[in-house]
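G., the chain you wanted modeled:
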Amino acid sequence: MAGRGGDSQVNLVNCNFNALVIGDGNTVNNYYRRLEFVEESTTSRSRGTGFRRTFIPDGGELRGTKRKQSKIRFPQRKQRPDPKFCSKRGSSESEEEIVRYNSPKILPAASGDSKQKTSEFCAVLKNLHPLRDSGNWEEFNSVADGVIKAKEGDLDLQLLVLIEKSVVVSYQNDLEKAEATVLKALKTLNETKVKMHMNNFLVTMAHLHLTGFYRRQNKHGKAEGSIAIAEQNSGNGSSRFLKALIYYEMASNLSKFVSSIPLDRSAREEYVDRAKHYMKQCIDLCIELDAGGVYIKKHHFGLVKLALLDLNCRTKAARITGPRSIEEAKNCLKTVEEKFEDEMKEGLKIQFLVALCDLNYREGNLQAALEHAHDALDLAKDHGFNLEIAAIKERQDEICKLITAKETMNLDIPQSDEGMETLSSSTGPSQRNSPHSSGCEME
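Predicted structure as tokens:
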């Protein structure tokens, strides 16, 4: 409406912004987050959830009033690949069937052949990653093989697909084979002439995956070495996609380290703060990329990982927690449920249910914790996420023991830092949780 002196006022209530550029690019994130976490109407409710949404600017605490809800139930569905991308077997025009996406700058700026190759990489990842996250291994392999067939002789794409296949192998709990697959791809890259622009991307992706494989085996030194190589080859941060993945792996490495190694309180707090900083950087980048049409759901997993870090139920070495940490974990899980429940794929659902198990355990609700562990185990078995099974079973066993002890001895579960036990009694991988198990850390 018009104001005095010819000035105008613009009412921005209920407006949607796709992008906001203010000054230099370094200030975009802060304003993006403030737009993202505006306070909503008290009558607005997220479909399928039991919480009223109220967001505080700049990612502050989320509060809500819970409706009565017995438990979270996830619908079973299959993620289908984009039909425009899938190879039409037997077609003589199969090489023309890969869709070119005008995505935000996933890779550093490129031109000519490199630009076309970048578009092809975007298309491949956008079709493979949803299938991977859903546990649709058969369709994943079908689409991956279709890419290779459609672009026969294209070494760049063959290596990209080979590296992505290694992740599926790791989820099926064969980390040694997954590592060997990536090392084979790196050897081929070293021995052949792949254009430098794509070579750097492939080397970065390969070492990002190696970082995850080593982390899940508690090989902390190797994991740190791999992430350092990935960062060196990522183009000095000019790719937001790669930078988000690097932040994610750095945060995950620190989270696993503090959960595996006995540390004094001050040292642990320092590592936790660093892990949270990296994960929040990852979440900011992923929100921007996701809004731009790039398939990258690390912000979903990142919020769950922040909750798991605060709840600290992996090992006895990491048992320190407190009321504030529990509340922060609860807020992260509420955010995931309210904002992303409809987007959850099976891999994230498993992690989310594990986090709910840990939250209820920390709050002393052992029966609810056990139910969430059962649900997580069923999903892991049904969809072939074998990497998760051992750690979830360990949680079940420990909770069952506590329930039995409480029933027979009237044992109260303490909530203090000094007395609170965890869902695993060892300082490293347990006997049931082999060195190849993730400790419920698929991502």
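The mean pLDDT is 74.

Shout if anything looks off.
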